[in-house]
Amino acid sequence: MRGINCSVIALLLVVGCFPPTTIDNQLESRPHAVGCAPGACGDSERAITITYLGVSGLLIEHQGHVLLTAPFFSTPSLSMVSPRLSRLFRSWPRISADTGAIEKLLPHSADRATAILVGHGHYDHLMDVPYIATMRATSSKVYGGPSVRHMLMGDSALRANGGQRVVAISEAAAGSREWPGVWYYSSDSAYRFMALTAGHAPTFRAWKQSYTFAAGTLQVDLDSLPHTAAGWKLGEPYAFLIDVLSDPAGEPVFRIYFQDAPSEPPFGFPPSDVLAERAVDVAVLCAATSSNFSATPDSLLVVLRPAYVIVTHWEDFFRSQTRPIQLNRATALGAFRQSLRRALPGSSGWVMPLPQTTFRFRETGRE
Questions:
Q1: Structure letter (DSSP) for residue 136
Q2: How much is the pLDDT for 84?
Q3: Closest CA relative to residue 200, chosen from 238, 171, 150
Q4: Cα separation of 122 and 22, whole Å?
Q5: Helix (H) or strand (E) holding 48
């Protein structure tokens, strides 16, 4: 407890030392735009759209079929996710999903989602999922690591019928740089996805000390959803390869690499033979805390060689999207941009979008 408390104190002190930076416009590479303009993607009905929902949430749509990566809109303040300065730091404030914010910010098209992918179990990735899965995307299945399932079983609606709507991807089923993992398919056969064994950068690193918030896994189902930020455990972190499939042939027509936390190389790398079969069209990379690992994301980009990069989880998620968007203080923006310029092919474009921005791509993924 004492070591964790010291790390939390140090984190709070560091966070408080830097004034917030307001971001009015998305940042992007020049001259290469990401995707194509509306009406310039050929057959608009066959275009792939990716909408950045904020934090690590994506809404991916193709021919009316939707896949989500775990959206998060509740954004409790920093004081609500930190231990209270009383009772020797043993008291954590209670938090829960802000259903009003979800209803205001989650697009209606998300209701058609058949799959929700969760890379790890922290509250800013998982806390809103039970409401979204049971009240909005009611035909979806949720995919994540075993700890993600154990936590979601705390929701009575998801626990019903044996918890069939929550799929635990075992570590044995996840791929790595050396071997492929299992392909899972959405119920509408519009997408397939492979989990990749990944990691999670330390929340805080300084003076040869590091601390990862809410680390650890769960081994049993919970009776109720976690009530504090610390209760939403990291679990088994995964990245994902996501293939958009054609209809009715079921062949991949677009490939997305998705991570919701930076990994220490080579964790999170896809199998080389899978990449040889089809290149990555869009890499979705997490900016926050990436500077806490060396060669990140440089070495990953050298392997992926994507046509485009969408940078996510860069903004301050302790404040609502309805307020001016500010930079997450754990995002070393200058270093991240240098990494992109250094490691990306010259023809690639990248963007750090504002939440609720939509990008369009041709099925081939290459402009």
A1: I
A2: 66
A3: 238
A4: 25
A5: strand 48-54
In this model, does residue 4 exceed pLDDT 90?
no
Q: Is 48 part of a structural domain of the chain?
A: yes
Decide: pTM greater than 0.90: yes
- Helical residues (DSSP H) of 171-305, grouped into ranges: 272-277, 298-304
Measured between alpha carbons, how far is residue 19 from residues 252, 326, 331, 349 in Å?
45, 10, 13, 30
- What is the residue-averaged pLDDT of the chain? 90
Q: pLDDT above 90 covers what percent of the chain?
A: 77
CATH number of domain containing 225? 3.60.15.10
Tokens of 306: 């994507």
CA 141 to chain centre: 17
| Beta strand ranges found along 246-340 (DSSP E) | 252-258, 282-286, 308-312
Lowest mean pLDDT among 135-139, 318-322, 361-365: 361-365
pLDDT score of 159? 97
Is residue 240 included in any domain, yes or no?
Answer: yes
Task: Give the residue numbers spanning the domain of 31.
Answer: 2-361
At 253, the amino acid letter reads V
Q: Is residue 339 part of a domain?
A: yes
User: Are residues 164 and 131 in contact, defined by beta-carbon separation less than 8 angstroms?
Assistant: no
| Number of domains forming the structure of the chain | 1
